[in-house]
Please model this.
Amino acid sequence: MLEVNENNIPLTPIQEDFLTQKNINLYVLREDLNHPEISGNKWRKLKYNLQEAKKKGFNQLLTFGGAFSNHIAATAALGRDFGFRTIGIIRGEEALPLNATLQSAQNNGMIFKYVSRKQYQENNKYEKSFVESLEKEFGKFYLVPEGGSNVFAVKGCAEIINNISIDYDVICSACGTGGTIAGIIASVDQDKQVLGFPALKGGKFLKEDIQQLLLAYKNELNCKVENTNWNLITDYHFGGFAKVKPELVDFIRSFKENHNILLDFIYTGKMLFGLFDMIKSSNQLDSKTIIVVHTGGIQGNKGFEERLNIVI
Model:
């Protein structure tokens, strides 16, 4: 049975000479330790979605993702433990043998349907006609959006700050579909600065998505959203989603050696690389206490290591 550690998530201090020189206190909030398969923000984003699916009487979940999607793997694991049939609509053509992510999802009972990348463009995958065709094929399902980001995801991610026991000035999170950063924005005090690091190239578009999630959260769940002090840092995507470069690999390897914390290639690695670069190249964060949220996603590293022959 699923056992998730939602409480007492540690805050790990990061010691670096350049941080000391700038009088910066930096901590990593270890959300990645809450569960081995559904770690970090994935549990937060799916928790209330599962409750809603149960409440509405659904017995199967359908969601979307790429071949290395943490969300796909987490949804399959949750479906296994909570008695849901799971269906994954996978971007791109089928490739055999399955990579580690999809093999894990399949082992946990997920059924796959592969769709063209064109189908994914401009949210075509959510068109009424396509969703209806999926219902004809699979029967009624509770639809969880790609990345899990909706009002219930925001509600879950708003609980991330519950494990922060110190005063701080800035909180940082990587961004994929915007649900995690929206939950953080919705939950922090007005005097906190929130920095989001999109993993996608051209991540400025996420600003509107985040605003829409916050509006839906405020209106549909009748929740207050007061913090407007947030920004997206879009310069550290390394070429786009799931793209890596040697300097990112070196940084992740060095961070693990120095701090005994493994980062992932898609999200937290890029975020911390970007944050370190910002700190070193400017004074805007000097004398601040900064919290970095480790959103998990470590399961995806295995696929990169296999595909690119990387050893961390």
Remarks:
- The chain has a mean pLDDT of 92.
